[in-house]
């Protein structure tokens, strides 16, 4: 009797768990954005939330900003949340693959559940006003004998990593100049106070059209529509690509049914035409990658970052 009762209870429990997962979500899903409101990570996640509620009837997604620590505080809140699928995070490159290497985070990449990637922010190296070079070849020639000042949005950030990693791949020298955000770097570039900077295509396009910057090369495998006449480093013989990215992450330990539902949801959102048009108009490069591909990308970027940070003496500096 006991054995039969036990088996019956177990079957009922399994059935109940499956029903709960099948009915997910039963309450609002909260997504922690590790930056202040108004930035590209925040704005793109709000487009995700709108699409989530439009595609999945009677479902709610709430975006909560939790800035601080260069994105580490909000990312920690997401990674260390209860693993029920109702508290997730906006996965960004800096806090996930760079900050843990510098130190001072209470999480590592192994603690992150990668749900899906939905967009990438492409990067363009541009020549600033009065720079002693105006195209890829003259930039490489100059950097072979000098160390051009290349601005970035912050020490140890994704833009510095990409510039330093490219310099190593191309066997040239640069002097990284960190600023407090991309807007300050852009102002210095337009003013001719630095030689070059890593910019987003949208930043580079508007400044290029105004004659304030000159695009040198794109950090992609292939040329992009916004700059059809600007080469890639790859076509110039330097095997280097880099982009910042945006995706959905969560804590480890979610049940398989909930995780599968969330991963399918990201794919549906990322392939939705209205979503793609909205994000493209914002200057994002809409790209869907499933959890496995997303994690693989993050791990590749972490290894690139590790090498750069070690060369800069920044590896583990906050431990």
Features:
five-stranded mixed beta sheet; disordered N terminus; 11 helices; alpha/beta; six-stranded mixed beta sheet; 319 residues
Terminal-residue CA separation: 58 Å
Alpha carbon gyration radius = 22 Å
**Biggest pleated-sheet summary:** 6 strands, mixed
Shape: globular
Tell me how many strands there are. Answer: 11
Strand content: 15-25%
**Helix-strand category:** alpha/beta
Uncertain spans, ≥5 residues at pLDDT below 50?
1-21
Give the SSE layout.
Layout: H1 2-22, E1 29-33, H2 40-55, E2 61-65, H3 72-79, E3 87-92, H4 93-102, E4 112-122, E5 124-127, H5 136-145, E6 149-152, H6 158-170, E7 175-178, H7 182-190, E8 196-199, H8 201-209, E9 214-218, E10 243-251, H9 256-270, H10 273-281, E11 285-290, H11 291-312
Parallel strand pairs: 1-2, 1-3, 6-7, 6-8
Antiparallel strand pairs: 3-10, 4-10, 4-11, 5-8, 5-9
């Amino acid at each position: 009797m006991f054995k039969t009762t036990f088996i019956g209870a177990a079957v009922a429990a399994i059935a109940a768990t499956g029903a709960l997962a099948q009915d997910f979500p039963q309450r609002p899903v909260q997504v922690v954005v590790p930056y202040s409101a108004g930035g590209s990570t925040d704005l793109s996640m709000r487009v995700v939330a709108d699409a989530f509620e439009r595609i999945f009837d009677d479902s709610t997604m709430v975006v909560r900003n939790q800035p601080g620590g260069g994105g580490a505080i909000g990312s920690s809140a997401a990674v260390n949340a209860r693993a029920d699928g109702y508290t997730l995070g906006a996965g960004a490159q800096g806090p996930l693959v760079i900050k843990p290497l510098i130190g001072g985070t209470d999480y590592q990449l192994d603690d992150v559940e990668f749900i899906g990637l939905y967009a990438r922010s492409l990067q363009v190296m541009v020549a600033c006003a009065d720079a002693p070079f105006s195209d890829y070849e003259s930039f490489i020639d100059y950097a072979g004998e000098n160390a051009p000042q290349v601005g970035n949005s912050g020490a140890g950030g994704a833009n510095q990593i990409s510039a330093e990693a490219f310099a190593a791949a191309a066997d040239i020298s640069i002097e990284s100049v960190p600023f407090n955000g991309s807007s300050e770097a852009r102002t210095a570039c337009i003013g001719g106070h630095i030689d070059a900077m890593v910019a987003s295509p949208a930043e580079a396009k508007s400044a290029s059209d105004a004659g304030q910057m000159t695009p040198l090369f794109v950090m992609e495998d292939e040329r992009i529509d916004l700059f059809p006449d600007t080469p890639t480093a790859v076509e110039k013989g330097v095997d280097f690509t880099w982009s910042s990215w945006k995706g959905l992450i969560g804590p480890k330990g979610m049940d398989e049914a909930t995780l599968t539902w969330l991963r399918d949801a990201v794919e549906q959102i990322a392939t939705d035409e209205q979503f793609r048009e909205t994000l493209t108009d914002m200057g994002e490069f809409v790209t869907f990658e499933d959890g496995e591909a997303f994690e693989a990308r993050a791990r590749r970027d972490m290894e690139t970052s590790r090498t750069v940070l070690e060369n800069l003496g920044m590896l583990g500096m906050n431990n």
